[in-house]
UniProtKB/TrEMBL annotation:
Organism field: Novosphingobium sediminis
Start and end residues of each WGR domain: 9-46
Name this polypeptide is given: WGR domain-containing protein
Pfam families on file: WGR
Length: 62
């Protein structure tokens, strides 16, 4: 999901169908704690997908 560059933490989020050109967003944070909170917030939102859109999200790593 993200990585650490120097003293800045970055979270990268990509949306789209597997195998297609995806939309993405990278957000930088001053601390790893802020980045972790943001990532957990994204994962909680993805966990509610079946209620919102009827299909569960799957985490994919490249």
């Amino acid at each position: 999901m993200g990585g650490v560059i120097g003293s800045v933490s970055r979270v990268t989020n990509r949306l789209g169908r597997i195998g297609s050109h995806c939309q993405g967003r990278a957000v930088s944070f001053a601390s790893e704690d802020e980045a972790s909170r943001f990532a957990l917030q994204l994962l909680r939102r993805r966990a509610s997908a079946p209620k919102r859109i009827g299909v569960a999200h799957r985490e994919v790593s490249f």
